[in-house]
Structures are given as structure tokens and as C-alpha cells.
Amino acid sequence: MLDNLYTKLTAKVNYKLLMLLPIILSLLLLGVISFKGIPMSIDFVGGTRIELSLNESLSQEKLYNLKDVLHSMDLKNLKIHVSEDILANVYKLEITTTSIINESDIKPLLERHLGKELQSLDVIKIYLPENTSLSSDFLETLKKVTVADIKLDKERNLVTIKGIDLEEEKIKRIFEYRLGFTPRIDVNKKNFRMQTIGPSLGEKFREQGFWALIFAYILIVVVVFLIFRDFVPSIAIILAATCDAIAAFGGMSLFDIVLEPASLVSILMLIGYSVDTDILLTTRVLRGERGTINERIDNAMKTGLTMTTTTIVVMVTVIVLTNFLGVPVLSSIATVLLIGLLMDILTTWLMNAGLLKMYLEEMKGKPKSGVKK
Amino acid sequence: MKVEEAGKRLLRSWRINVLLALLVISLLAIMNIIPVNPDKSIGFGNGLDFGMDFAGGIQIQLKLERPLDRNTLDLEKSILLSRLNALGLKDVKVMAWGDQYILVELSKASPSEIKRIENILKKSAKFEQRIDGELVAKGDEIQVNSDPRKSFVSPQGSERGYYWQIGIKLTGDAPARFGKVAYGKFFGRDNPLNRPVDLFIDRPENTTIIMSVSTYEILKEMKGSGQGDPLYAGNTAIEIIENRSRIPVLVYDGNLSSLLMKLDLYRSKGFFRVIIADSKKLVPEKVRGAIEEKGFITERKERGNMSYEDWIRSLTGLKSSLRLNFNTGGRPVYDALITGRAPTYEEAKEEFKMHRIWLGSGNLPARAYIVSKLEVPPSLGEKFLKEAFLIGVFALLTVALIVFLRYKAAVIVLPIIFTGLSEIFLILGFAAIISWELDLAAIAGILTAVGTGVDDQIVITDETLRREKSRRLIPIAERIKRAFFIIFTAAATTIATMLPVFTIQNLKGFAFTTIVGVLIGVLITRPTYAKIIEELTK
To answer: What gap in Å lies between CA A304 and CA B456, rounded to an integer?
Structure first.
């Protein structure tokens, strides 16, 4: 199935025309990026992210009113996203904006519109039977185990535990053990989470990412040049990696995938995979292989396509699985990689193969060894 | 039959045995049977260290008012860290990020602790210099002279040790106060009667110390023996606490009501904090309860296994007591030198560094602002790890399927899966042994490494299996050599790509596991895979 692919392909279309395809595609995607831009997460541009968990769905009217109020607040790039976790039966409302908001400003406003008290801590209340005395030793231990603030109201026989992330089962067990029976316990999980990131911090992060990419490029050129002692393949490899990265960014722009720190990981992974296939191609074509140039490319292509197909299928599996499991980070990494890898098939086997072929045939003359049949 | 023979030959090969041995070591480390995490029990994954993404925690990002150079940034970091440690927080990490940001990470903290940390980070520590309890200079009245000729450690030692000095500048009311307070405290150069200048960081204010009669008796007699600790300077331990640190000491002799009466008297003067400086045996919890009932804020600071001197320092916030070595004559002092000597150059450097930190803690080199606070619940990480593992298993099954479809031979599928799994375990084992903290990015790095691993194995397989139809057969060894040229080149470029990534704090883990994975791949697992394929296809 994968045999002699390049030979068959170039028999139908001139290989120089094929070379243009990935370049044209990249230019088109560059156009999309400059026109549409890439949506960036607040990690890069700074801003506020608020997550609300509600245990009942929000009426359309309430949601509409809330959106109305938020929009009137002059928040930049405001996005409101409602989702539902079916398994946990929780409705989530995510509000992001690139403006910085104060918790003390937004929280009462949200509370008013949701008709609900919002809390940013887990609170567990334990009602003790009358005349139970808890030693300060016990409370001290409880404090250590739960890493929380603990208040004992002796008059109301009430213990209040406030913490960032409380394990109710553990607390229940501790009290069961201490009292010999299960007391009445009220659990109020936090339903309000807010994070702000200063714009300059985001900028710094973006800047660091940019420089890391530039240095990575320079190092790749140096390494490839040292190994092949030839300028053309080095440039070809960088060109391919660049086109792949453009495709990945273009895909993000086209499908509104938010650029977040994890996306940087996927771009780096992509560059790694992209360089792998190019080195395979370059080695098979330039280093002491037998057969015509087309045959060498055919051979390399068979191996390379197996490699890329495997990765692509794995990415599709990951995307499908994350739809069920809900690990959004992995899903976004996989989607970006998938787009980039599809492009990589074109850049490696149409563009770079063509470039190497042209280089050998036209700049270096016909290869000396292995032309005899 | 053929496979069985190949298997026997393989078991005799040193490559396979090395891989198996390393796998066993990795598993032992991951399971903490090799005790890489002494505080944890044996169990799968207990040898691994998890970063905030998985273990949960709080991350606070600070922005400094201006970018700092390396040395000043280190100073800023040390000051923040020493302050947080003084709060009694363990597992606090303070990391610089670029030249203008500092990340503070802690594993777990209660809401009130977080508030305290935020206050500590926002506020400067309370710095004071006192002579015999009299205030000389405080907080922002003192500044380290930035002239490097004023502050140095002398690399030439004498019989009296290695000399260091730090130049300071006094501003505000401090010069006049220093001149007055220090007058009459100097008796001649290097005279043992010279009074010490006590340097306090966060000296307890409005606080009384309660201790048992027996402890009080010991401290009343304690003067330091002979060459003793420079702390004493002719005073007893009780005098250091009461006179030089200005913290009243109350004795508990079993009579609770008289103690409470004395405390009431102090409260009318604004003393509302109490440090109980003894064990529960000597000053029982019920005493503490009775004091708290009266509305005092209490804290227990028993000596435990500290030396008496360290304990006194921690009770009072006293950091250093260098002797006054010049006569102010009652006149204002604007510039002063803080000097000291230590027996070795290394110790002198350490003393010098600590004093710079202490002197600077009143005012950090650059003011820090909290720009972001992030709380990660540990439950989120657990969920992610489980799901990532599940996805990993499915990914490997997918790889197996594709490889099978391509080569139509189970004999090749199994080694590829085995090699992939080995790589995961070797990377994890290595991370466990060097205690590298795994975060989200690191997991992504492992996936990348295994992904390129599968790619490489396909290259090896193709080179080995290629039927050179009408041409002379190239020996297997030759073909594998060519495959390895591709693999080494790819590995070199991957490592080159990852090196700059080390500069990005959040992605360090990614670069680390990718590089480790690639190295393990080219040095250990891939040659082994080649050997397996070679034997199986013979």
C-alpha cells in the first residue's frame, strides 16, 4: 500500500508543483492568523478567571441578566462559558476576561444575580451532642491533619472547619473515632474560584516562550549542519518545522483553540516529530543509499508515513478518549499536534523530498553512486 | 520453535540483562522499596515526587518593582525564604523567574496561614538594632551601603580568623539615637566589656513569656561558659530575654490564679500575646487553656532538642550580637560598619551572607507585589493521573494495532510495546532516584519521549526487515548501523530543541523528561530493541 508512493505521485504531477502546495497552504494559514488572531489564555495576556460550580442549572433569564450585567462592566475580552459535568451533576460557569477584577467587587455582584452565597473555601460544620468536651490536643491534631482553620463554639457545641480543600470522609472518620458515633455534619464545598494574572507576567511568559523557540531553531540548524555538513538540508528541515508550526498556530486560529502554556508543549512536541521525519528522509536520500533518488524517497516515505500515521492515530484516540474522560489539557495538546502532523506529511514528503531531489539533480548533478540498475 | 531459541539467545545477551536489571532498579525506586522517599511507605508510586500540579498546593507569584541582577535576586530570594521559614512553614519553595518575578510554592496551608504568608510577603520584616534593650535603629532607617569597598569578606586570614564587614547607612532619627544610646557602652578597642549591638528580626512585641520555675532557675544561672556563645556578653539568659530583648518573663509555679493576675496586669499595658516556653509537662495545657479563655493569643515554643542558645534566639528573634567597637561620643552616627571574624573563610562568608540578609530584611532589595495566586486542589491531580494513565494504555494499544497492521507480525508488536513500557518505567525510576518533581509538563515529556521511541523502533524495524529485492543483500549489522545514524541525529536535534526550554519555569519538567527519555532511548532501550529484532528475524 505504501510502496513507491513518491514515484507514483510524481508520475502524475510535477514534483516542483507539489513542493509549492505546503508553502501556499502555510501562507494561507499565516493570512488566517494575521486576520483572525490566535485566542490566548489569560496565562499569556493576564486577566481574571472565575469558576463557579452550581448544583442546579441556571435559568435562561438569570443567565441572560448576568451576562447583561457583566457586559456592562466594560471588561475586555469577556467570555462566559456554561458547561455541565453530568457525572457529578454540577453546572459550571466560567468567566474569563483580560481585565483584572477585584474579588470584593465581583463576588457580591455574582451573589446577587445568582441568588446564592458564594464561598471560596470548603466549610464543614460538625454538630456535637451537648456537653461533649474536645481537648485542645484533639483540636491541635485535627488542625494538623486537615491543614485548616478550626473553631470550636462551646456554647453551640459546634466545630467549624475552614480549609482550601477539605476531605470530608477523613474528617468524618476522625470524629467517628473520637466520639464513637457519627455526628451531624454539614458540608459546604467551595463554589467560587478566582484567579488573576498580572498582564506583565503573561507578557514575560510569552516573551520567554518566543525566545526559547528562536534558540531551539538556531540549535537545530547548528546540529543538523554539523551532522550533514550541508547547508541545504539544514534549511529544508527548518523550513519544514516552520511550516508545521504555522499550520498548528493556524489551526488554533481557525478552530478557536485557546493558546495556553500546554499549547507551547504541543508546538515543541510537533517540532520534535517534524524534525524526526525530515532526518529520516535526509539520511536515506543523502547518505550512501542505493537506488535512484525517487526510490530512496519511496523507501523513506514508507517508514516515515508509518511513524506519522501511528502518532496521528494515537492523537485521534486521545481526542476521542478525552471527550469521555474530560482532561481538557491533553485534548488541546492532541488537537494541535494532529493539525501539525497532517501538515508535516505535506512538508516532509512533498516539499522537503522535492527540495532534496532538486538539490541533488540540479545543484550537485546526478548522484554518482547507485544509479546503475 | 524459532522464537524460543531466539528468546534463549536473548536472555544470554548482556544488553537485555542490563535493561532488565535497570528495570528492576527503577521499579524498586518507584515503589519506594529502595527508600528514595524515607518519609513514605512502600507502595506503587510512593518513590515518585509530585509537583504542585498533582500534589496540590498554593502558588503565589510576586512581581518585583524593578528587574534585579543575579546576586541581588538571590539576596531577595533568601530574605523571603528565611522569613517564610521563620513562620514555621516547611516545604516552601522560592524560585526566581526571569529577573523580575519570584514564585513561592507551598504544598499545603490553612487559610489563616495563607493570609499570614501574604502579609509576610507584602510587609517587610520588623528589623531592629538594640543596645541593652534601647532601640538604636529600626526597619527602613538602615540601609546596606552599596559600595563594594565597604562590604566584603577578607580572603586573608590572621591568627584571629577571617575578617568581614558590611557598611551601613543610617537615616531618619537613627543617627542621633545611635549616638546617644551607644554613648558609654564602649570601653576601648576589642575590650571584652564593650556592649553588644543586638540585631532582631521580628522580635515579639506586646508579648510575655511564661516558663516553669525549674527552667527559670536554669536560665537565671546561664552565662555561657568561658569562650561561650557571643550571645551572652556577660549577661545571663534571663537578662538577655528581659533586658536586652524587652520581653517580660513570668514564672509558673503551679499557682494558676496568681499567674493570671500578673498577666492581667501586663494586659493593661497592652501585652496580649503569650509565649509558653516549656513542655506540656512543665506548663500543662490546662494553664494554656485558662490563659486563652482570658483572651490572650498563645503559642508554645519549647526547647525540644535545640541548644539553649538557639532556643533563646528563636524566642526573642535575636539574630546576632556583635560588640560595639567604636566610641560615638554621643554624636550622631550616619555611617557604620558591622564587622565580624570567623575561624575559616567559608564561615566568614556564611556570616557575611546571613548578616546581609538580616540587615536587608527590613527592606527587601526590591519591593514585591503579589500578582497572582493559584490554589491547586490535590484531588484534581489524582483524577488527571488516573485518566492520563488510562489514556496512555489506550495509546499503546493503538500503537500496537497500527504496527500489527503494517508488519502483520505479532513478533514485532510485542517488543515495541515492551520497549515503550520499559522507557516509561526507566524515566520514572530515574526521576524517583534524583527526586525530580513530576508535573503536568513532565508527563507530556514522557509521552513525547515514548512517541519518538516508537518512531525510532519503526525505523529500526524497517531497516532490518527491508528486502533488498534485486540487489545484493546488505548485512543486518550494516543496516542497523544506518538506522542508528538516523536515531542519533534525531536524538541530538530533540535534545537541542529542549535545551532552551529549561529557561521557562513551567516547562522545565517537559524538557527534563524528554531529554532523559531520549537519552535512555538511544543508550539503553533502542539498542536492546535492535538486538531483539535482529534475533527474532534471524
So the answer is: 10
Q: Report the pLDDT value the prediction gives residue A369, as an integer from 0 to 100.
A: 45
**SS3 for B488-526, per residue?**
HHHHHHHHHHHHHHHHCHHHHHHHHHHHHHHHHHHHHHH
Q: Phi/psi at B279 (nearest 5 deg)?
A: -75, 170
Q: CATH 1.20.1640.10 in chain B, residues?
A: 2-51+377-536
Residue B222 Cα to chain centre, angstroms: 35
What is the model's pLDDT at position B355? 79
Mean pLDDT of B99-128: 76
pLDDT at B87: 64
* Residues A301-334: tens digit of each pLDDT: 989 999 999 999 988 988 888 777 666 777 888 8
Angstrom distance (rounded) from CA A348 to CA A22: 9
Q: A with B: how many residue pairs have Cβ under 8 Å apart?
A: 207
Determine, for residues B387 and A327 on separate chains, whether the beta-carbon distance falls below 8 Å: yes
Domains for chain A: give ranges and CATH numbers: 5-42+198-363 (1.20.1640.10), 47-118 (3.30.70), 122-189 (3.30.70.100)
Q: CA-to-CA distance for A187 and A161, rounded, in angstroms?
A: 10
Nearest CB to B455; choose among A227, A307, A321: A307
Nearest CA in chain A to B385: A327
Say if the Cβ atoms of A314 and B395 lie within 8 Å.
Answer: yes
Pick the CATH number of B52-121 from 3.30.70.3220, 1.10.357.10, 3.30.499.10, 3.40.50.720: 3.30.70.3220
Average pLDDT over residues A16-35: 93
Q: B256-267 and B285-293 helices cross at what angle (nearest 10)? A: 40
Cβ contact, residue pair A165, B56, below 8 Å:
yes
The correct CATH number of B2-51+377-536 out of 1.20.1640.10, 1.10.3720.10, 1.20.120.140, 1.10.3470.10 is 1.20.1640.10
- Chain B residues with beta carbon closer than 8 angstroms to that of A264: 504, 507
Model pTM score:
0.70
Whole-number average pLDDT of chain A:
84
* pLDDT surpasses 90 at A26: yes
Closest CB to B63 among A195, A200, A279: A200
B500 chain-A contacts, CB cut-off 8 A: 211-216, 219
Who wins on pLDDT, B188 or B228? B188
User: What is the ipTM, given to two decimal places?
Assistant: 0.80
For the stretch B34-57, pLDDT in tens is: 888 787 788 777 888 887 777 778
Chain A stretch 310-369, residues whose beta carbon is closer than 8 A to a beta carbon of chain B? 310-311, 313-314, 317-318, 321-322, 325-327, 329-330, 333
Q: Where in chain B is the domain with CATH 3.30.70.3220?
A: 52-121
Chain B: residue whose CA lies nearest to A295: B468
